[in-house]
Amino acid sequence: MKEKLENFIKDNRADFDQFEAPANFWDKIEKQLDERQIGTSPNKILKGERVVRLSFLLKLAASIIPLLFAGIWFYQYQFKQSSYLSNINPQLAQQQVYYASLIEVKRSELKRIEKEEPLLYQEFSEEIKKMDANFQKLKNDLPASPNQEETVKAMIHNLQIQIELLNQQLEIIQQINQLKKEQRNDTQNI
DSSP state, 39? Predict the structure, then answer.
């Protein structure tokens, strides 16, 4: 097969040489290669933009994926606990899931002040941790409790108190922010 190709090329060499590239053809190719290496070619700039977009998307995905997994884990955890609680009292189980999700939303709102007011955030977090520790104790005591329905009611009451506490903490934060705005306005008016 190789010999046939070589023989064909030798026999038709004149036909192949009939069309020659222009004299400056190779110079143009070399110049375009140099431009691409330097980065002045318009095509190179477009590729750079694509890389930036791709890296942005990768960063975005890297930040969203852990949140997604945390959300899935939290949902499964809540579902597992609510299914156990639903055996005791379905209405109380629904309330527990509702209050737990509301607490998570309020905690995320509270987390926003962590950088601005770290001491205040730490104090608020400690109060919530104490309440959460009480809730966890009730949850651990639930399987061995002689009156499980009362224990579930105590758990829900604990969650309600946590929500009230978080609301008060968020209200304090709003008052602090309002005072800061008023102070800024006062200094600007002077």
Answer: T
